[in-house]
Amino acid sequence: MADGPRLAPIAEADRDDETRELLEALGDLNIFATLAHHPKLLKRWLVFGGHVIAKSTLPERERELLILRTGWRCGCEYEFGQHTVLGRAAGLNDVEIHRLATEGTEGWSDADALLLRAVDDLVVDHGLSEETYAALAEAWGTQQVIDLVFAVGQYVLVSMALNSFAVQLDPGVPGWPS
Predict the structure, then answer these.
(1) Taking phi first (over 0 means left), then psi (-120 to 50 degrees means alpha), and beta for anything else, what does residue 104 get?
(2) How many Å apart are CA 106 and CA 147, to the nearest integer?
(3) Angstrom distance (rounded) from CA 92 to CA 95
(4) Are 42 and 34 a contacting pair, CB within 8 Å?
(5) Residues 6+ apart with CB under 8 A from 69
């Protein structure tokens, strides 16, 4: 990661009342304060991101597996760090989180390995292989498979933005596993 942000979070003095209220409601994280340079985009993106993070048909633990693996595949330390915290809250342990930042799927249950292969397919090949799609369709409902694809896509997009703007880790948030 760069020594500093390419696009610094919007300064307090440059925030209008609406932006200030929005950032306070969101927890004033660096990702939101950076995207607040474009408040209309931020508000619209939050609707979609809100679905992925809070209204998805995917269980919380499985969603966090997908997001962490996506963050790692995209080389996005900010995303991996934020979702390390959320992944722990969703029931992932530190050994699992560490293994998400490695190649392969050895040591995972068949169900978890399938999710990791789905992320790997989507990030590397920009689509699910026939084998992965067939296994997902057998294991999950149609809406869950759609939510899976869109969750990975959302976090590829977010990772691209965070990496491009060199958004810095928030205080107290871990980076890559050691």
Answers:
(1) left
(2) 25
(3) 8
(4) no
(5) 100, 115, 116, 119, 120
Report the alpha-carbon distance of residue 47 to residue 64 in Å, rounded. Answer: 19
Question: Hunting for tokens 């989507």 — which residue is that?
Answer: 122
User: Where do runs of H (alpha helix) occur along 30-141?
Assistant: 30-35, 39-50, 60-73, 77-89, 94-100, 110-125, 130-139
pLDDT digit string (tens) for the chain, length 178 residues:
568 999 999 999 999 999 999 999 999 899 999 999 999 999 999 999 999 999 999 999 999 999 999 999 999 999 999 999 999 999 999 999 999 999 999 999 999 999 999 999 999 999 999 999 999 999 999 999 999 999 999 999 999 999 999 999 999 999 999 8
